[in-house]
Structures are given as structure tokens and as C-alpha cells.
Design brief:
Layout lengths: L8 H4 L5 H14 L5 E2 L11 H13 L11 H15 L8 E4 L1 H13 L5 E6 L3 H9 L3 E6 L10 H10 L4 E5 L11 H14 L2 E5 L22 E5 L12 E4 L2 H14 L5 H10 L3 H24 L4 E2 L7 E5 L7 H12 L1 E2 L1 E2 L11 E5 L4 H16 L1
Parallel strand pairs: 1-11, 3-4, 3-5, 5-6, 6-7
Antiparallel strand pairs: 2-8, 7-8, 9-10, 10-13, 12-13
Helix pairs in contact: 3-10, 4-10, 5-6, 5-9, 7-8, 11-13
The structure holds pyridoxal-5'-phosphate.
Pyridoxal-5'-phosphate binds next to helix 5.
Length: 388
């Protein structure tokens, strides 16, 4: 191949996901016989619920798995609409429900449907790294807005207004509960942010992928405060279906047809087998609540033990399955810290620069979506590590 051929500049704008690199490194150590506590990846340790797997088995035995409508199987869209009535008390017309390939697929469709090239879109720092990468890959400009203790570690209307004054924003993407912190926005905070977006005439996108995983208070959907908000959700986290790649959106009516056209051409339809399986997930609450109780136990352990061993600065860990810790008392280089922690104690954690390019060197994220035993080993190993 000619050496003149080069990957695109837009692909160069996509940075690697360091937590995945840590996972690969942990895998190498594991294959060499080391025991590793997996605290690096944000995915449930449990398999998909039994009802989900049974539905998929039946569908496989029935035989034909064909394309579905680009917007998703009507029965699944109806079931998602019913979930809004049951869980939030919000009526959602089925026409505004769209099934997607995970929330990751939803972001691509939504960004393409809402924004023209070069548009500035505000995201929070710390935040989920794929937002920045997806926006950059699509020729959009991610605008990091730092969150702080004074603002409750969430995006505030004042910070959004300030960024908009620098140069106009086209949209704001908020998440609650958040990754990497688990911090949640209450109804007042969500309402204020949505109102600001409306006043500024910019899109408001709410990533609600960690809904269902709140420990102290009930999560609020942005749909409850703004019927025009773009809601993005997924079966990956609460429903334990990461590998099935199904998510959904609730869209304002004006975006439905543009998104349908994009989906038709970009991937035709979400895998039908996964859609059939996902429909059964809404009936698996009993099993899922047991899994959630396991996360709650892990969380309680970390919230009690981390401060005891000197990790006292944690962002509010209201939901999701993460503890995001300020470790600046111990290091100014969280990448090196995590590398040594893995090598010396067999604990795999995610260094902060994934989530916050500016302040991340002082932070580390621990995911407690795995086993209690791994959380226990993490506390013990960290204690040895910090003393040593
Ligand atoms: C905040 C957030 N949004 C979206 C995703 C993507 O999830 P999926 O594409 O599996 O739905 C993740 C995955 O970790 C996440 O943490």
C-alpha cells in the first residue's frame, strides 16, 4: 500500500480509552496467573437476566432473524413507552420512541440529526470520554465544562451560559447519574438547565443510562421537566445487557423522521435477536433488583472503607456503580499510580485522564459493578499500597 495513504484527520481526533488499556494489561497479568480485582470497567459482572436469555433462546429456535423497522420493533417501542408510564408516570407517544444499537448508536444518530459540522456541544468534565470522541469524529466541537463542588459536581446553567457567551453552543449534554462519579442532578437542577437551554435556543440532551441505579434518591428523567429534551438510555447497565447492544431514545417529534432516515442508511436496523431479548428485560425486575442490591452492598463497603484508609475525597456517589476519588494527597500522576497499583497489588482501576483531560491526573475511578470480594480485595490492597 502506498505510504501516501493516511488515516483521516478526524480519526486522529479520537483518543484511546485508557480504562480499556488497563483492562488489557490486567488480562495479560491474569493469564500469567495473577489474581486481579477488576475495578476498571463500567459493566455489570452479572449476565443478562434469565428471562432475557430465555426470550433470545426461543427466538433463535423459531428461526428467522430478519431486519426490523429502522426505528425498532413496534412491540419493543411500545414496551419502552409503557416503562415511562410505569416508572416515571410520564406519557410518551410510541412514535417518539426509537430503538438504537446501545446508547452509543443513539449518540451518533442524535448528533448527526441535531448538529451541523463545527457545532459546539457542551459536555461535563469529568465526563464519559466517548462523548468527546464521538463529537470529534463527527466534526463537531466538544466543549468541556468543568464541574465543581460549589455547583454540586454537575453542569450548572451559569457555566453553560458562560460557555455560550464565549462562542454560541448548539447543544448541552448532561447525564445523571453520571460517569465517572455517580453524581445525580435533582429535579430543580435539571429543570434549571433545561430552561436555560430553551432560553438560549439550544438542544438539551439527557443521558439516562444509569437510571435504575440510584441508591439514596429517585432519579428524575429530563422528560419530566422538558418535553423537548432528547432522552438517551440503554439496556446496558441496569438491565445487564452490555453485549446485546440495545438502547433507546425518546425524541421530540421533529427529530424522528431525520433519525429514521439516518438509521435506514447507517445500519438498517438494530439486531432483531437483541430487540426481542430486550423486551423481556422489563419483566426481570425481581432479578435485577437483587443485582442492584449487590452494587449497594459494594458501594456501602467502599464509602465506609476508602475514607478510613485515607481516600477521603470522593465525589457524591448517588447512583451508577462508580466511586471517583481525588487522590492528589498521594500522587499527581494517576496514570502511574494506577499502573503501579495493578502491578504491585493486582487492583485494576481507571485513571482520571480518561474522564477529565485537565484535572484527571489527580483522580481515579473505581467501578463497583463486579463482586463484593473484588471490592474487599481493593480496600485491603489499597491500604497496603498507600502505607508502603
Ligand atoms: C455515561 C455513559 N453513556 C453511554 C455509555 C455507552 O453505553 P452503551 O453504548 O452500552 O449503551 C456508557 C458506557 O459506559 C456510559 O457510561
Amino acid at each position: 500500500m502506498s505510504s501516501l495513504l493516511q488515516p483521516s484527520r478526524r480519526s486522529a481526533a479520537v483518543s484511546p480509552f485508557i480504562a480499556m488499556d488497563v483492562m488489557a494489561e490486567a488480562g495479560i497479568l491474569e493469564r500469567a496467573g495473577r489474581a486481579i480485582a477488576h475495578m476498571e470497567v463500567g459493566q455489570p459482572g452479572a449476565p443478562a437476566p434469565r428471562l432475557v436469555r430465555e426470550a433470545a433462546k426461543r427466538a433463535l429456535e423459531d428461526g428467522r432473524i430478519g431486519y426490523t423497522e429502522a426505528l425498532g420493533m413496534m412491540s419493543l417501542r411500545e414496551r419502552i413507552a409503557r416503562h415511562y408510564a410505569d416508572h416515571y408516570g410520564i406519557g410518551v407517544p410510541v412514535e417518539r420512541v426509537v430503538v438504537t444499537t446501545g446508547s452509543s448508536g443513539a449518540f451518533i444518530l442524535a448528533f448527526l440529526a441535531m448538529f451541523d459540522p463545527g457545532a459546539r456541544v457542551a459536555i461535563s468534565a469529568p465526563g464519559y470520554p466517548a462523548y468527546r470522541n464521538t463529537l470529534a469524529a463527527l466534526g463537531l466541537e466538544p466543549v468541556d465544562i468543568e464541574t465543581h463542588a460549589a455547583g454540586g459536581w454537575v453542569l450548572t446553567p451559569e457555566a453553560v451560559e458562560m460557555a455560550h457567551r464565549d462562542a454560541p453552543l448548539a447543544g448541552v449534554l448532561a447525564m445523571s447519574p453520571a460517569n465517572p462519579s455517580g453524581t445525580m442532578m435533582d429535579r430543580t437542577q435539571l429543570e434549571a438547565l433545561a430552561k436555560t437551554c430553551r432560553r438560549l435556543g439550544i438542544w438539551f440532551i439527557s443521558d439516562e443510562i444509569y437510571h435504575g441505579l440510584a441508591y439514596e434518591k429517585k432519579e428524575v428523567s429530563a422528560l419530566a421537566v422538558d418535553d423537548n429534551a432528547v432522552i438517551i438510555n440503554s439496556f446496558s447497565k441496569y438491565y445487564c445487557m452490555t453485549g446485546w447492544r440495545v438502547g433507546w431514545m425518546i425524541l421530540p417529534e421533529i427529530l424522528v423522521r431525520p433519525i429514521e432516515r439516518l438509521a435506514q442508511s447507517l445500519y438498517i436496523s438494530v439486531p432483531k435477536l437483541s430487540q426481542i431479548a430486550a423486551e423481556a428485560a422489563f419483566d426481570a425486575t425481581e432479578e435485577l433488583e437483587i443485582i442492584k442490591a449487590g452494587y449497594a452492598k459494594n458501594r456501602a463497603l467502599l464509602l465506609k472503607e476508602l475514607p478510613r484508609i485515607g481516600i477521603t475525597e470522593l465525589l457524591p456517589c448517588d447512583g451508577a456503580f462508580y466511586a471517583y476519588a481525588d487522590i492528589s494527597r498521594f500522587t499527581n500522576d494517576s496514570m502511574g499510580f494506577c499502573k503501579r497499583l495493578l502491578e504491585e497489588q493486582g487492583i485494576a482501576g481507571a485513571p482520571g485522564p480518561d474522564f477529565d483531560p485537565v484535572r484527571g491526573h489527580k483522580f481515579m475511578r473505581l467501578s463497583f459493578a463486579g463482586t463484593y470480594d473484588d471490592c474487599l480485595k481493593t480496600v485491603e490492597g489499597l491500604e497496603r499500597f498507600l502505607k508502603g
